[in-house]
Amino acid sequence: MHYTQRILLILSLALLTMPASSVLATVHNVSIVDFAFSPATVTVNIGDTVRWTHNGAFFHTTTSNSLIWDSGTMSNGSIFDFQFNSSGGFPYHCGFHPLAMTGTVNVNAPNVPPNLVVPGPQSVVVPSQSVSFNVSATDGNPQDTVTITLLGLNPVPSNTTPTFTGTNPKTFNWSPICIEAGTYYAKFQANDGKGGIDTDSVLITVQCTIHYILMDSLKFKPQVETVGVGEQVCWIHIDPLCPSPCFHTTTSDSGVWNSDTMFTNDTFCFIFNNSGVYPYHCIPHQIDGMVGTILACSAIPGDANASGNLTLGDIIATVNYIFNKAGCNPTPSCWLSGLLCRGDWNGSGTVSLSDVIRGVNYIFNKPGGPWNPVPIGACCFSP
């Protein structure tokens, strides 16, 4: 092998075997001029070297105040190197001119990555619940600015998108729907902008509210089922009076859904995303009275303020609607939380003073009732 090639090989091997800190270390130059160090203060990282070069006419030294290093007497052209392997501030002076010639080497501590703080596993039942929690980060260096980001959900939701707002802490909000039922990992990252990164994930389990209807004895059981908008209904064939090849179907009268043939132990599910009344039947046994109804509701009749209870506040909201009172926007529909049927106590299809009278009679339990609000349209939940 050629001599020059051997030298290059030896140098390459030496670099490969050197510690990473040695390869990446930086040399910081300080000039010793007569009666001054220039610059007087340098800031370095652990593993870096400071090199003092004598450029003056008189004898000088670079001597640590705590005697960690001492160059001895230096004359013009002399060089002294010292590697700093611990953090802190290191003042020094010239042994010949200790009052006039002083300097400081500041050694940065190693960067400590931020610590991401996330909650434990989350579980929600939709559509009545949503996911909401805070994510924060701490950092050992109070001067660092930590950025928290949502890297995403795995798997990616098919229909809805979460939001992630704020600074530190930041708030994660997500309102999944039934079709997105399953297990997800929300992954977050904290970054201090100096190479310090911490990541963590939150397990989110999304379950759908399911109503079960049995196909049994040539009947749908229950025959009438009330569900919330966005909830799921599952029909299960367990009918001993209809063994194979006998079959059932669950078929909407208006064609919204059709299970096709269902044999023993078969299941069919459908999500009701719109409010309304949905009559349905079994195709081969409709003549036998195998019919049913799904009431898909989004509100309670009479619950004008959408509080979930029937109180005088609902009566006041209904009066404000009738007289188009100011105080919400857009008036007057906002008084009924956007649904006319919330104020339609008597189920007439309009909201009038007769609804107010019925509501007052109901709340104060006046004789002559019943004064219960009448289910109508999307307002078909029981109070």
How would you sum up this structure, described in words?
It is a single chain. The protein is mainly beta. It folds into four domains: 19-108, Cupredoxins -  blue copper proteins (Immunoglobulin-like, Sandwich), CATH 2.60.40.420; 115-206, Immunoglobulins (Immunoglobulin-like), CATH 2.60.40.10; 210-297, Cupredoxins -  blue copper proteins (Immunoglobulin-like); 299-383, Type 1 dockerin domain. 11% of the residues lie in helices and 36% in strands. The protein has helices spanning 3-17, 20-24, 312-322, 353-363, and strands at residues 27-33, 36-38, 41-45, 49-54, 63-64, 79-83, 88-93, 102-108, 115-117, 122-126, 131-138, 147-154, 163-166, 170-174, 182-191, 197-208, 210-216, 219-221, 224-228, 231-237, 251-252, 267-272, 276-281, 291-297. The strands form six sheets. It has a four-stranded mixed β-sheet, with no helix packed on it. Strands 3-8-7-5 form a four-stranded mixed β-sheet, with no helix packed on it. Strand 17 (210-216) and strand 18 form a beta hairpin. Helix 3 runs antiparallel to helix 4. The radius of gyration is 39 Å and the shape is elongated. Residues 1-23 have low confidence and may be disordered.
